[in-house]
Amino acid sequence: MTDALGNLVRFRLLPGQRYDTVGVAPLIEDIAFDAILADKAFDVNWIIEEMNERGTQIVISQRPQRKHPLDIDGEMYKWRHLIENFFAKIKEFKAIAMRCEKTDRNFSAMIYACAAVINSR
């Protein structure tokens, strides 16, 4: 999870074979935000329902199978590149890109360290 400027706010390590949506609930619990920007992988009913209950603006690219597509703000959706840019920047660090750290604790520490370096640039 990043803020509006693409800076790391929270993250959750997941096994590689799990859907990304599994880690959403712990990320959004006890945190307030005005909008959610995400790609099609996060176009699932429970996330849409949760955001509607919170009164959060939903800016998620819709899957073609959705019977009732949501109206999304096209200009706001363009801001999603800030999130993608964060992932591109963090992959510049060899230990992250190659997953050199084998334990969750060390890998998490490396992500925090890389995010701090990115923010200090």
Describe the model.
- This protein has 121 residues and is mainly α.
- The protein has one domain.
- It has helices at 24-28, 45-54, 74-77, 81-90, 94-97, 104-120, and strands at residues 35-38, 57-60.
- The radius of gyration is 15 Å and the shape is globular.
Brief summary:
It is built from six helices and two strands. The chain has helices at 24-28, 45-54, 74-77, 81-90, 94-97, 104-120, and strands at 35-38, 57-60. β1 (35-38), α2 (45-54) and β2 form a beta-alpha-beta unit.
Oligomer: single chain
> What's the number of extended β-strand segments?
2
- Mean pLDDT reading: 87
Percent of residues in helices comes to: 40-55%
Largest sheet descriptor: 2 strands, parallel
Helix count, DSSP H or I runs of 4 or more residues: 6
Task: Report strand order across the widest sheet.
Answer: 1-2
One letter per element, helices H and strands E, the order comes to HEHEHHHH
From the alpha carbons, calculate the radius of gyration and give it in angstroms. Answer: 15 Å
Shape: globular
Low-confidence runs (pLDDT<50, min 5 residues)? none
- Termini Cα gap: 20 Å
Helix vs. strand class: mainly alpha
